[in-house]
Write a structure and sequence with these properties.
alpha/beta; 9 helices; about 300 residues; binds NADP nicotinamide-adenine-dinucleotide phosphate
Length: about 300
């Protein structure tokens, strides 16, 4: 019997990735959607989440694809109704609300999965394996993309809780926190806020252990999603958002496609539900919260889509 899932927040990522990943997986069935406007052809659509939970006790899993700020209320309601919950990244608007969800999931005996899709990129597991037991002497992230291309018209990314350039940057941090053999902590940051916006459009981060990051949402032309790591045994680089592995400058694995990430997330969710476990990892979001706590604010040119 496939696991029935209700998908909530039918927007860009739900349609680009979640719907095809669920459709392609024999172990999953998209049994309902909940969205104020969005829907998926052939799937029962609800606008009211409380009504969906009440009317469809046959659906044990809820996958939330909303932006982070409105997500908490939906997640808490689903957990209280005894449903297993899968959260898009970042898992919430604040750390405390995710910890509250974790406690709710435990209290109700259901699964909570804070997904980090970039960790499922092709070359991340081999990079983590190669770095295991090694000493990192330097690491640098370059994550530069065009916000107009990836978030056309999505003003929520520039509203409080939208995280600005940390919305993509947290993907890089999810990889970094997964592959480094020892944890690092943020020691300083410069945050560039457009004069008319509440979240940064660029950020330069410094961490302990000679680790640094450069996030920028104003890049036009080719996009850059690189992580370079130096060790006494050689250099590792992840290109294409964690999909291609280079060792000492030569390609050593992975493939330049991202289509495997969401199928892998749903496979992991199925496993967590089957085995009665939760997976809650806030490490990438701790770095973002620390950058917003410790970072120096700089005002830059206004931004409009
Ligand atoms: P989106 O298209 O702007 O929003 C998804 C849907 O959420 C909207 O279509 C809307 O559906 C619903 N929604 C928005 N604001 C809401 C509110 N205040 N209350 C209730 N529902 C609301 O965003 P997205 O790009 O899919 O991103 C959603 C999440 O996925 C984010 O956390 C993002 O970081 C993550 N993500 C995005 C991408 C990407 O490429 N965009 C990639 C990976 C992960 P209705 O109007 O129909 O209710």
């Amino acid at each position: 019997m496939p696991l029935k899932v209700a998908l909530v927040g039918i927007g860009k990522i739900a349609l680009d990735q979640h719907v095809p990943a669920i459709a392609a997986a024999a172990e999953w069935e998209l049994a309902a959607t909940c969205s104020r406007q969005g829907s998926v052809e052939g799937v029962p659509a609800h606008a009211d989440f409380a009504a969906l939970l009440a009317e469809r006790p046959d659906i044990p899993v809820v996958s939330l694809c909303l932006p982070p700020v409105p997500r908490f209320g939906y997640a808490a309601a689903a957990l209280r109704a005894g449903r297993h919950v899968m959260l898009e990244k970042p898992p919430g608007a604040t750390l405390a609300e995710v910890l509250e969800l974790q406690a709710l999931a435990e209290a109700h005996g259901v699964t909570l999965y804070t997904t980090w899709h970039s960790r499922m990129a092709h070359a991340v597991a081999p990079a983590r394996a190669w770095l295991a037991g090694k000493t990192v002497t330097r690491a640098h992230i370059t994550w530069r993309e065009d916000v107009r291309k990836w978030h056309p018209g999505q003003d929520w990314v520039f509203e409080p809780g939208g995280m600005g350039v940390f919305d993509p940057g947290i993907n890089a941090l999810s990889i970094l926190t997964h592959i480094l053999p020892a944890p690092v902590h943020l020691t300083g940051a410069e945050l560039e806020f457009p004069a008319n916006r509440d979240t940064p459009i660029a950020a330069q981060l410094r961490f302990s252990g000679n680790v640094s990051a450069d996030f920028d949402w104003r890049q036009q032309g080719p996009q850059t999603w690189d992580i370079e790591v130096e060790t006494p045994e050689g250099q590792l680089a992840l290109r294409m958002g964690g999909n291609v592995l280079e060792l000492d400058g030569a390609t050593a694995g992975g493939q330049a496609t991202i289509m495997g990430e969401y199928p892998a997330l749903y496979a992991r969710m199925a496993e967590l539900v089957r085995t009665g476990q939760s997976e809650v990892d806030l490490a990438p979001m701790v770095h973002v919260a620390d950058a917003l706590t410790l970072g120096r604010r700089m005002t830059v040119a206004p931004f409009d889509f």
